[in-house]
Each structure stands twice: as C-alpha cells, then as structure tokens.
Model the fold of this input.
Amino acid sequence: MTDDNIKEVINRTSIVEIINSTVPLKKKGSNYFGLSPFKKEKTPSFSVNEEKKIFHCFSTGEHGNVIDFLIKVKGYNFKDALYELANKVGVELNYKSSKYNDLIYEINDFASNLFHKNLYDSKSHLKYLKEIRKFEERTIKEFNLGSTLNVNILQKKLLNQFEVKDLILAGVFNKNKNSKLFFMNRIMVPIINLQSKILGFGARVIDDSLPKYINSSETKVFKKKQILFNEKILNKHKNKKIILVEGYFDVIKLYQNGFENCLAPLGTAINHDKLIELTKKGFEVIVCLDGDLAGRNATIRLMNNLLSSENFELGIKFVLLPKNYDPDQLLDSNLHGQLSKLVESPLNIEQLIEKYLEKYNLSQDIDEQFKGSKILKNLLSSITNIDLKKILTNHFKNKKLVSNDKFGNILKNKRSQIEIKSDLKSKFSAALIMFYVENLKYRESVYDLIATAKFEGKFKEIRDEIIKKTLFKSTASDIYDLLDSKGLNFTKNLLFSNEARRLCRFASSKFKGDPHSEIEKTINFINK
Done:
C-alpha cells in the first residue's frame, strides 16, 4: 500500500457526508459548520471544507482529514479507518491483518450470541443476574449478557462453525494442546468498541472460586489497556459528561437506573492517558470509584498519575462515595438520590487534593500538619505541566492565606477579581490579549489585528488600555500591574486564563510555531 492509495481514499470520500453522520452540519459559504465534537459549546466553531477535504475546530485547534476525524472523534485506529473508507468508496487495499481482524470479529459475534442464548438454559446464572444483581430482562438483552455453563455443548457448536486455530486466534479457546473454551462456567459480558464490533469478553464466576473476574487474552484487536468497557457510548455525542466506575457490572447497573453515560476499565489499573485522551475530545470525565480502601487508593493513584503527566490539562473530576459503598450498593439502598447529587457536583482535582489533605490540616498534632505540608509539596513538585503547576501552586498559596484570616481575605479577593463571562468568545479574547502582552517581539506585527478586532465589554476596555503607545515597549509584568491597579487583570482568575491558553495554543508559553495564522483565525471568530 502506498501514499497514493491513501490520497485516493481521502479524495474519493465525501468528508462532509462522513462527518455529518456524527456532527450535524450546515453550509455557510464554501464551508460547512457544526458544534465541536471535541467540547461542549453553543456556537458552532467546527468547520468542514469538502473541496480541501479537511476539518478545523476553532475552539480546540483540532484539525485534519477524514481519516483523522475517524481516529480523533470515533476512536478508530489508522488501519481500520482507512480500510472502512476504502470499502465505502471502492478502493482496493491489500491488508492481510484486516482480514484476520474481520475473522476475529466474526468469531466473537457468533460466540456472543451463542453465550447469550445459552444463558436462558443456565438457571443458576440467570437467577444470579436477576435476583442477586437485580438486572432486568431489558438490561440483560441490551448488553447481550451470556453464560458458559453447558461448556461441552458450546464447544461443539463453536467447532462446527470455526477451525480450532482461528478460535485460538480470537482468544475464545485456550492455546494449549487440548484446546478448550477459555471461559469455563462463567457469566459472559461482551466488550464492544466504538464501531459496535465485539473485541473480546469479560467473564465472572458466581461462587467463591478465583479469579473472580477474567478478560479475554490479548489478541490482534483486544488490547486491554487501550479499551474501556461500554465505550460505544462515546459515538453518540449526546452527553459530554462521562462517569468512570470500577467494573462492568457497575456500568450495567447504572445504565439500568438512568446513568447511561458510564465506562469502566478492564481490570484494576486505570489508564490515565486514555482519560486524558477523552478530555482532548471534549468529554468531561467524572471518576467514581468504590468507597472502600482499595477504591480510595486507586483514586489517589490516578490523581498522582494525572499530575505527573505533561498532557494533563484539567477536565477530569472526582466523586468520593460514602465509606465502603460502591455505586451498585447506593442504587439498591435508600441513598439513590445521594449518588445523583455527588455526580452533579464532582470535585475538581484541587478539591480532591484538599480532601486528601483534610485529615492533616485539621489535626492539632504538629507532626501531622508537617506531614500534610510535605505531601502537598511533593504533589506540586511532581506536576510536569508548567501552566497547571503554576495554577495549583498559587491556588494552595492563596488557601494558606485564607486560613489566616478567612472571611477578610475572601472578601478582599472577591473585590479584586474582575467579573468576566466564561463563554468561548471571552476565552478567545483573553488569549489574544495575553499573547499581545506577553510577547514583546510580536507586538508590532500583530498590533493592527489587535487594535481593530471587535472585542466586547471588559475585553474592549482592556484592549484599549494595552495598545496605548506609552505601553508599547513595556514588560508584561508592568502591563499586568497597570491592569491590576484598574481592576482589569483577568489573569488573576487562573482557571479561566489557563483554559484560554489551552484553547488557543499560541497563548501558551510552550507554543513554538508561527502564531500569526492562528491569531487571524481567532480574530475572525470573535469578529463574527
């Protein structure tokens, strides 16, 4: 396969048709516009050009061709995206690996339906699901739950349909000489990807035998670390709020009770990079692990992993369940309403850190207070994202000041903060102003753009102040001090200004490219 094959697939494909099936588009001039699939917004900032075969999201900076869209938004890998588009437009590709993948999907689909039918001949497993887990019939069918009781009958039916080597390839049979069904006497849960293809299975015993849970062994399509259970919901783009729980039975029970936007890792370790990837696609991730000691420790581990990742830029929040409760237990108790309230008001990462340190800060023991101070210092020093490190360090410095004179300092801080909207236009305006103030070498080249842009409200007042000739050679520090004296320094709202820098990369200290084209696009957006 050559680059020409790839170009042919891209050129033959209607990028508008593919994207419109996920993001409703409306034509304006030569482009089509829709709401960003990467973040929640009210004003369309997502542009598609059929002639150039590209898309561009003005609110996040994401851009690319139709293959990039399938990868970034729909979760495809490159080969699957190219293969599917090639089939759609009639371009022949010779992908041996894709043929193997298709065979695995076929086997998994057949096995899933076989296990599901077998569940209704497996009284103990059906009783467990309905009476112990309290799953309704509609829920069992929605997730196509199954059983591998009556194992000899199942093996015979599978061998009548497929060769042993192919069943091993799919992970349905063991790899040893006397190959048999990998899952023995277990309840079966199909694991489905964004394209509604079955990648593998999760399986659970109903007695005390170990291991309690197992997953399919790794195959060409089943990579446990890269998969979340129930990720097919990410394809719907109806709800940008995602709840991450510990296991697939939690997901299923929550779905039955109206929480249809839940995911779970396949195993105990949570891939923090996968969660960060979801936030880059515009999802807000709410982590809701069990309230026992293991769940609390897993939450803290995840928090540490996120803080030490250079790619983490907020967007992940946390729910701390009541002690020793899991979501399933809350739903079955009289605390059902409490779960809804907790999910509606999750903790930001700085609030989670505060909760984590609460026992040390409230202690009257000096040793405990010192221990808490040391833990906080280590947490802050582990942060690799420079902007986030600055925000959280300042946040906890301010917290320390508040504790000395709680009410007086709170009132003082409230008076000194400028009141600003947090809509997209405000964030774009803030990014432009920060770039102009902080980049002395570019001021002359962007002066006319900034001076004529249609800023509104407080941002117009700020712009008019900073473009004065007397400030043309002033340092960023001097200009911010001036804005501070006039009550116009919006950068004191660190969460707002950091979000503006994240949306407009040119305003970040890490941006290394030519900022001019990005600035022009941003100004075109606020001038609408």
Observations:
- Confidence is low (pLDDT under 50) at residues 401-416.
- DSSP finds 24 helices and 14 strands in the chain.
- The domain at 96-222 is CATH 3.90.980.10 (DNA primase DNAg catalytic core, N-terminal domain).
- Residues 96-119 form the longest helix (24 residues).
